[in-house]
TrEMBL record:
Molecular-function GO terms, alphabetical: acyltransferase activity, transferring groups other than amino-acyl groups
Signal sequence residues: 1-24
InterPro entries: AB_hydrolase_fold, Esterase-like, Mycobacterial_A85_antigen
Keywords: Signal
Tagged with keyword Protease: no
PANTHER family, A to Z: DIACYLGLYCEROL ACYLTRANSFERASE_MYCOLYLTRANSFERASE AG85A, ENTEROCHELIN ESTERASE-RELATED
The protein, known as: Enterochelin esterase-like enzyme
Xref: Pfam families: Esterase
Native source organism of the sequence: Catenisphaera adipataccumulans
Length: 271
């Protein structure tokens, strides 16, 4: 499988891409936890965006790309989320920013080296992040009010979550990242079947920039999923969208989230 993902330092630095600063109508919180990876203990932090409301909130878990970090992405996204919520474009939601790196010592120039960490996070670590979120913040604790998305290698992570825990979330947003699992789309289908889900139980919005070479890997996989005899995927529950003239950048991620977030957590009844 050819991998076209290009890495931009904008995921680590640079907060001047959103125009004029917007006065915060929100807060950024965080929680700490530990993991065991290859027989070593790591202390980690996830950041949480909380809009200014006392209402119980749905939760989006949003993963950064290669070389990125959770804290920087949270700071980049805060003014955008504030603006979109104020405009009524998206419903109020909590957004959790975890990282798949056990520590910054794992950051490398070769993004393909991240894949074992993407897989580990999806399989072993995500459950702890969800539990910490739901025990510390005023959020819902059911799959109908949970979404998971990510950009670049965060998009790769998103497909891993679908494979291993499809029934944990009702909405998925893989952006500029394809499925790297050994058996590709077959693993996605098997994961959804193992979770006991039907087509109506899933909503995936796969997105990428028009000029992002990653789409050359994404499109064949999406076509294969929609064409599979299982009938689990179709054009309604597996959407594909390209942002005009988009590249592999934070600007593209911003455009893709602006497109996708109005469609999640809509008409969700309290349970």
């Amino acid at each position: 499988m050819r991998r076209w993902i290009k890495i931009f330092a904008v995921f680590c630095i640079g907060f001047g891409l959103t125009g004029r600063p917007v006065q915060a109508a929100s807060s950024l919180s965080h929680f700490d936890y530990t993991i065991q990876y290859k027989n070593k203990t790591y202390h980690k932090t996830a950041y949480v965006y909380l809009p200014d409301t006392d209402e119980k909130l749905p939760v989006l878990y949003l993963m950064h790309g290669s070389t990125g970090d959770a804290g920087s992405l949270a700071k980049q996204m805060q003014p955008l989320l504030d603006r979109w919520i104020k405009q009524g474009r998206i419903p109020p939601m909590a957004v959790v920013f975890p990282t798949y790196y056990p520590s910054r010592d794992f950051v490398q120039d070769d993004y393909s080296e991240d894949y074992p960490l993407n897989r580990f996070f999806a399989r072993r670590e995500l459950k702890k992040v969800i539990r910490k979120t739901e025990s510390n913040f005023n959020v819902y604790s059911d799959r109908e009010h949970r979404a998971f998305g990510g950009y670049s290698m965060g998009g790769v992570t998103t497909w891993e979550v679908i494979i291993h825990h499809a029934d944990w979330f009702s909405e998925y947003l893989p952006m500029a990242g394809d499925c790297w699992s050994k058996n590709g789309t077959a693993d996605v289908i098997q994961g959804v079947q193992k979770a006991g889900l039907q087509a109506e139980d899933l909503h995936i919005q796969a997105m990428v920039g028009e000029n992002d070479g990653t789409k050359q890997d994404m499109i064949p996989q999406i076509d294969a999923l929609r064409a599979d005899d299982s009938g689990l995927f179709n054009e309604e529950n597996l959407e594909y969208w390209e942002n005009n003239d988009g590249s592999h950048s934070f600007a593209s991620m911003r455009a893709e989230l602006r497109h996708a977030l109005p469609k999640i957590f809509t008409a969700k009844e309290e349970v």
